[in-house]
Write a structure and sequence with these properties.
By secondary structure, the chain is an all-alpha fold. The chain has two helices and no strands. It folds into two domains: about 35 residues; about 35 residues. It comes from Salinimicrobium flavum.
Length: about 80
């Protein structure tokens, strides 16, 4: 526990704590708004569509590569 030598030290710490409290409150508000925005239906649909498109491209690429490899191993010399 901290020992204070005068009231000025106490006032200084109280001021710092008040400012830190305001900063923390603003961080919570910002986090809330970012979360709210990321969970908006429009954003969810956009993210889902992007994931589906990305996975379709990966699947198409993997199928092409595996088909090419299968053709190479299936060839008779």
């Amino acid at each position: 526990m901290r020992e204070y030598k005068n009231f000025d030290e106490i006032d200084r710490d109280l001021t710092l704590l008040k400012l830190q409290k305001e900063i923390d409150k603003e961080k919570i508000i910002l986090s809330y708004h970012q979360t709210k925005e990321s969970l908006a239906p429009k954003r969810l649909l956009k993210n889902a569509a992007g994931s589906i498109f990305k996975n379709a491209l990966i699947l198409k690429g993997a199928t092409s590569v595996l088909g090419f490899i299968g053709d190479k191993f299936g060839e008779k010399d």
